[in-house]
């Protein structure tokens, strides 16, 4: 279940979800090279252990692997028990794992997507996003899976690890968000206001809104109801995660709970259309994880700079 390198007794303990590739793997590397003990998690044992091999190099701090599928309650419980027995606390949780919420283009077949990268040379960010949208298919199944992973999975992991974060003198949660989850994406004033009214918004209401979105998607009412269009599931799930982060920050003032957008990054999720490297994207997350002022909470950071949720 888990593999480890030796761990120094006084270092901070960070856990990264979806740490086997892309931005998550780079976040693990950067936290590790800052002297932090990293628990790299992945849903697939083989992919996780091979990622760990990549991190076994001189000058690197401690990295430990543990399996975690963020949609699997048993897997989450096993991880929480492991952390409790091994460290009795958690200092940093980086909720990075997510999916795109669409079906991948069939044109790629089994060819690794990184072989295709030259075709985006000369395209600007908007053209790349348009290409991506044209080549992905929105289905009900992918939409449902996206909400279950990106919102409910992230929430389940967070709730299970909260008691351990509360045992830390400086507990921090960074939820990896996206600029496409900002509220300007919604074209329904009531919905926007409701999602931004953190004094009154509840987790129960968030569940109701997500149910409503799913029903609207199934009935073809996404546009008329004013939900975001083009990758709506991904956008709605990130907006819900942002709102949940703000609720959590209010509920637990002793913790720092923030959201961070890495920027448009070249990874499997974007079929390598992104303009930043995974290392650059990860730097935007790690900057928020390591904020010197550990008191800032309930905030959103776009590529390392504090910005509005709107
Ligand atoms: N790339 C961008 O431009 C961009 C922009 C804004 C925000 N983000 C956010 O950045 C984060 C990382 O994305 P990325 O671009 O690095 O994507 P990626 O390369 O596709 O990596 C996603 C990671 O999430 C894991 N994952 C998916 N479902 C999981 C589950 N049920 N349980 C555990 N792990 C699961 C994947 O594991 P497998 O390998 O097993 O599939 C993989 O490790 C995501 O939150 C994404 O929304 C990305």
TrEMBL record:
GO terms for cellular component: membrane. InterPro entries: NAD(P)-bd_dom_sf, SDR_fam. Pfam families: adh_short. It comes from the Eukaryota. GO terms for molecular function: oxidoreductase activity. Keywords: NADP, Oxidoreductase. Belongs to the short-chain dehydrogenases/reductases (SDR) family. This is (+)-neomenthol dehydrogenase-like. It comes from Lolium multiflorum (Italian ryegrass).
């Amino acid at each position: 279940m888990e593999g480890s390198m030796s761990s120094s007794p006084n270092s901070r303990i960070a856990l990264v979800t979806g740490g086997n590739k892309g931005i998550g793997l780079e976040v693990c590397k950067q936290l590790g090279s800052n002297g932090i003990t990293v628990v790299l998690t992945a849903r697939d044992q083989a992919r996780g252990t091979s990622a760990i091999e990549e991190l076994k190099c001189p000058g690197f701090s401690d990295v430990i692997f543990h399996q975690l599928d963020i949609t699997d309650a048993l897997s989450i419980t096993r991880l929480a028990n492991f952390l409790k027995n091994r460290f009795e606390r958690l200092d940093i949780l980086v909720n990075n794992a997510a999916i795109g919420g669409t079906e991948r283009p069939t044109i790629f077949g089994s060819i690794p997507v990184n072989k295709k990268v030259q075709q985006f040379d000369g395209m600007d960010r908007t053209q790349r996003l348009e290409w991506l949208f044209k080549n992905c298919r929105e289905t009900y199944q992918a939409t449902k899976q996206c909400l279950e992973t990106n919102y409910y999975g992230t929430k389940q992991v967070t709730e299970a690890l909260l008691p351990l974060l509360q045992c830390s003198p400086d507990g921090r949660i960074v939820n990896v968000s996206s600029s496409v989850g900002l509220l300007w994406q919604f074209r329904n004033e009531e919905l926007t206001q409701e999602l931004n009214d953190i004094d009154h918004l509840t987790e129960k209401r968030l569940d109701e809104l997500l149910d409503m979105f799913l029903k609207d998607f199934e009935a073809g009412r996404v546009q008329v109801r004013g939900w975001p269009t083009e990758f709506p599931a991904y956008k709605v799930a990130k907006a819900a995660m942002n709102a949940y982060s703000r609720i959590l920050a209010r509920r637990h003032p002793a913790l720092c709970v923030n959201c961070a957008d890495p920027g448009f990054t070249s990874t499997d999720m974007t079929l390598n259309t992104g303009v930043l490297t995974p290392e650059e994207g990860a730097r935007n997350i790690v900057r928020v994880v390591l904020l010197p002022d550990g008191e800032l909470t309930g905030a959103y950071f776009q590529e390392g700079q504090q910005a509005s949720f709107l």
